[in-house]
Amino acid sequence: MSVHDQAIAKMRLLPDSLVQEVNDFIDFLLWKHSGKDSSLWFESKEYIEMAESDFSDYLSNLEDYENHLAGGEI
User: Fold this and answer.
1) φ/ψ of residue 3, rounded to 5
2) CA 73 – CA 58 distance, rounded (Å)
3) What's the CA gap between 42 and 3, in Å, rounded?
4) Which of 4, 18, 38, 67 could form an S-S bond across to 14 if both were Cys, CB 3.0 to 4.6 Å?
5) Is residue 3 part of a domain?
6) Would 1 be classed as within a structural domain?
7) pLDDT single digits (tens) 10-22
């Protein structure tokens, strides 16, 4: 089985939300290795959306942690 086949088989097992993340990562890799100025990636709409998404997840998790801490659960 080729690497492509292995990757596709693994992707078929993922939930849709993770497939979207894989798709975004593939877009990043294609952009990074396309010969274009990869520093432009960090200014792109896609990068900003990904960064904001990851940051909002972090804030949500931090709030949950603080609530558990304040409630004496930790």
Assistant:
1) -60, -40
2) 20
3) 29
4) 18
5) no
6) no
7) 989 988 888 888 8
Q: Helices 16-32 and 45-70, interaxial angle, to 10°?
A: 130
pTM above 0.85, yes or no: no
CA distances from 60 to 4, 35, 45, 54 (A): 35, 37, 22, 10
Residue 10 lies in a domain: no
Name the phi and psi angles at 52, rounded to 5: -65, -35
The parent domain of residue 48 ranges over 15-70
Structure tokens at 28: 């990043």
Structural domain count, the chain: 1
- 50 occurs within a structural domain: yes
Q: Which two tokens stand for residue 30?
A: 């294609």
Q: Residue 14: which residues within 8 A CB-CB, separation 6 or more?
A: 22
